[in-house]
Amino acid sequence: xxxxxxxxxxxxxxxxxxxxxxxxxxxxxxxxxxxxxxxxxxxxxxxxxxxxxxxxxxxxxxxxxxxxxxxxxxxxxxxxxxxxxxxxxxxxxxxxxxxxxxxxxxxxxxxxxxxxxxxxxxxxxxxxxxxxxxxxxxxxxxxxxxxxxxxxxxxxxxxxxxxxxxxxxxxxxxxxxxxxxxxxxxxxxxxxxxxxxxxxxxxxxxxxxxxxxxxxxxxxxxxxxxxxxxxxxxxxxxxxxxxxxxxxxxxxxxxxxxxxxxxxxxxxxxxxxxxxxxxxxxxxxxxxxxxxxxxxxxxxxxxxxxxxxxxxxxxxxxxxxxxxxxxxxxxxxxxxxxxxxxxxxxxxxxxxxxxxxxxxxxxxxxxxxxxxxxxxxxxxxxxxxxxxxxxxxxxxxxxxxxxxx
Length: 405
Known about the structure:
Subcellular location: Cell membrane
Mean pLDDT: 88
Radius of gyration: 31 Å
Protein name: ABC transporter permease
Helix content: 40-55%
Number of helices: 11
Low-confidence stretches: none
Structural class: alpha+beta
Membrane topology: Multi-pass membrane protein
Number of domains: 2
Largest sheet: 7 strands, mixed
Pfam families: FtsX (PF02687), MacB_PCD (PF12704)
Transmembrane segments: 283-307, 336-357, 369-387
């Protein structure tokens, strides 16, 4: 198959060729960036919480003074533990996908402006919270009784803490984090262990890379560790246990206010938190399907128009010995050339669109491997779209050449 006659034919239909090429270019730019956005959102939705979600719920109360924290904690813990089916109740400051209360910047020395390591979530938990969460220790040791200290304002001073694997790899790449020190303003911390996973309260706000930058801090009840209770029950009993726990708050501590919205199972918190991301994924998939559909229809329409215009020319070629396969390959090659031109332009548009998204929405750079994937999709779409008209062209009989136009 010679390319020069095909190019000559395309030059005689510059406007139609340009329109289809521009349509393919736009589809390429949208396809690459939309697929990248879908992948980013999906990766966030799949964030590993690190906790035993199916067996955990959280119950939050507020409306009490800091001086009442010890009394409220004592009454709530005693009352909640008496609920049938309740396996454990402990205090915690925040849970994955719930309200964020402990985000702060950390550094490698007391001067936080010189060696910043990033902003992390501090999760405070009383004795037993580590086990109730179901965290998996991968290095170092678990908290011991003497590791639990009272929180001074934000967190305990000179605390022995556990960090997530993601934070350890970010802060000390290629090194063991055990024994490493870091600071949060004037608070000093030393790493005693590493957990496999522990998600932040709001992972979407920090992106997939920093979604698990967390520090588990053993803390004694009281002060900033009050009012948020981690409930554990068997997955089958958990909805009933949480419902009875919510109902029991009015009797256990009538002087506090139950936070209805944030007193849910961890599974429900995850579903609510990522609801907008799932909607966005559905919208982006709809955009992708629509754009590809419009592009395919454009190719089909143009190819069908050209087949109708060239029926006598096709008949002449058939009369001169061209086979059906020759005619079929002609139209497929012609479509391949148009789509290729559109893809080359579309790759430039894809980077331009990604640059705009990076500037206005702080998205990461589009990985290069999305471009060949987009090209393969559009090449395949173009060949499928042109197949019907090409088969009709190949079926034109040689006798057409003898008819008058």
